[in-house]
Design goal:
Length: about 300
């Protein structure tokens, strides 16, 4: 056997050995809305690569998926958790401490100790999985795992909720007002107003304004891609506001529903059906997207009058 062949065999041995020893570990960050429900939504992905000793952490930045599924999501708390997790991971990626690397052998214990304690909060990391890296690059592995576990959160969603746009169209007409002066003698405008039903469940409304009744603003966008999604969302909101009818009667509330229309003409029939369902809600007013400016003007006159 010649020296050239020996060199080739040695390189092949090193490469094959590297393929067998390089590995990655990952776990999924899940949002659990209720400890009583056996369901969760994936919102983050943590990966550790043995070939670099570094972490990768990707997560939903706007939490649109869980806000679409659940009401009363503690958005600010979750985002603060995510920022802290991301900050700690960056610190560990800059730290070559051998003791930390040894602890990563048990990724679940490492996560619980340094990133997110298993304390029964709404955010929980799953048990970790590991696999050999073979000849795949880190970016390729990350892309595959994202598509498998987080694609609905990290890509532009087909059924992405557009409620923030509806709220912005309303509030941009009011944001020049001096709310401190307006509310000095009598409360006429509210931000983050909470209604609690008979069972103690809380429902948050971004804005509220007084005009004989306290009008609580709720955006509902039906600019979705499938008729089934429009129907499901309409029934979900119908049930929610039927549940809040007693609170409206007791506290003199009105639920102002700002409705977003689908762009696809093929969904207009389902949209009209959704409106007919929402019109069944007592103590509610329907404001379609094209009527937002006029609705804002009425709110301005009421709270500045």
């Amino acid at each position: 056997m010649g020296k050239e062949q020996e060199r080739t065999d040695l390189q092949s041995f090193k490469w094959n050995n590297k393929m067998k020893t390089d590995f990655y570990k990952y776990c999924i960050l899940k949002y659990k809305h209720s400890p009583f429900l056996d369901e969760s939504v994936n919102i983050g992905l943590l990966i550790f690569y043995s070939n670099t000793g570094k972490f990768s952490f990707n997560y939903s930045k706007n939490l649109s998926r869980i806000k679409y599924i659940y009401d009363n999501v503690p958005e600010r708390t979750i985002k603060e958790y995510l920022k802290q997790i991301e900050k700690r991971i960056k610190n560990f990626s800059l730290n070559d401490d051998v003791f930390h690397k040894l602890e990563i052998d048990d990724l679940s214990s490492f996560v619980s100790k340094y990133l997110l304690p298993a304390d029964g909060s709404v955010l929980q990391f799953s048990n970790y999985k590991n696999d050999f890296q073979l000849d795949f690059k880190n970016d390729f592995i990350e892309d595959i795992l994202q598509k498998k576990h987080l694609i609905d959160d990290l890509k532009s969603q087909n059924n992405q909720s557009k409620e923030p746009e509806l709220l912005h169209k309303f509030y941009k007409n009011l944001k020049g007002l001096d709310f401190k002066t307006i509310n000095r003698d009598k409360k006429k405008f509210y931000i983050d107003y909470t209604v609690k039903n008979e069972t103690g469940n809380e429902f948050k409304f971004d804005y509220g304004w007084q005009n004989g009744t306290l009008n609580l603003v709720k955006p509902i966008s039906f600019d979705l891609k499938e008729s089934k999604s429009i129907a499901e969302k309409a029934y979900k909101n119908l049930g929610q506001f039927i549940d809040l009818e007693n609170e409206a009667k007791k506290s003199n509330l009105r639920y102002d529903l700002i409705i977003g229309r689908p762009q696809s003409k093929s969904l207009f029939k389902e949209y009209d059906h959704a409106l007919s369902l929402l019109e069944k809600i007592k103590h509610a007013k329907i404001i379609e997207e094209k009527e937002i400016d006029l609705y804002s003007l009425k709110a301005i006159k009421a709270i500045t009058g």
